[in-house]
Amino acid sequence: MAEAATRLPVKNEAQSTDRPAPWRPFDNLRREVDRLFDDFQLGSLRSPFGRSLFDVEPFWRGEISWAKAPAVDVVEKAAAYEITAELPGIEEKNIDVRFSDGVLTIKGEKTEEKEDKSKDRYLSERRYGSFQRAFRLPDGVETDKIAASFKNGVLTVTVPKTPEAVRSEKKIPITKA
Prior knowledge:
Elements: H1 27-42, E1 72-76, E2 80-86, E3 95-100, E4 103-117, E5 122-136, E6 147-151, E7 154-160, H2 163-167
Antiparallel strand pairs: 1-2, 2-7, 3-4, 4-5, 6-7
């Protein structure tokens, strides 16, 4: 007396309904506007075809703005440290160099206003930006003799070493083990 088993239809939830993706007409526009602002922020680091130079987005993408930090070189010479900052378009009166509690701070502000009145048009542009860089100086510097000079858009800060710091340097020979 074997009863015949009846099979019940089973609905598998893993099956897709083959619905098309929802239509989002503004997604492409948003991507293009975002890319436009990204290109503006990155400046010349983007190619004219809208791709980054190596087709890879840099990990420091949000930190490249000049307004945040200008290019700075720090060089240790025999008798002094030399800090050189490129500050194009900034006037000497808008630069502030200070030393306090072992930290050398360089601040600056750039303001530019352009106004063009012609017969049939009026153009007014304003750009503002500021920056600040701070450097913790090592022990063995003469803080009273720190000097700064500014020429052709380049700020040079010279931090002389103390005579003890200059003399205490010693070359150590390397021997084979």
